[in-house]
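Sample intake sheet
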Amino acid sequence: DSPKAYIISGSYRRRFGDVERALQDFEASLKLAPDNRDALLMAAQCAKDVGGREFHEGRRAEGDRMFQNARSHLNRGLELYANDVQFRIAIADLESRLGHSDQAYEDLKKGLEAMPGQSALLWSLATLLIEQGRYDEAAEKIEPLRSAGQPEAHLKYLESQILIGKGQWLQAKKQFESLKAVLVAWPNLMRS
């Protein structure tokens, strides 16, 4: 039994949809190596996924317990790896998912204070601002994202989301149509 073996097993199980057993593997890895970055992050992601499913299926107490588990792993990860972008985004995503978008905003701002101009944090902040209906603030993130090297197609996509939020449907539709062929290369972006 090695931490790496549990991580490999958990990654395999998560990839094929067995999130509960993947979570068990990641937590077994953490018993052997409590500070393992990958195990902390993946355990948190799995706990968040299980919590979301439990919550959706009406098992609120179990969902809350899983969300607390995820938060615990992420907070531990941030204690150990304070400037890790993935932990910072994951905790903000969890808070947003739980309806704590103001906390998610603070988590992302804290990350950007430590890592100014970090592209993934800027992107997450811009999308959160759009979700919060703060379209002008989201638009202010486009230039910093451009300076950070974000692909132009991504920036146009973000601008389209802002236009939709502002109710400017025709302009957003035109922008999306012009990006359709380019965005095929980023299927995850198209699903968001």
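Comment: The CA atoms of residues 74 and 91 lie 6 Å apart. The two ends are 38 Å apart (CA to CA).
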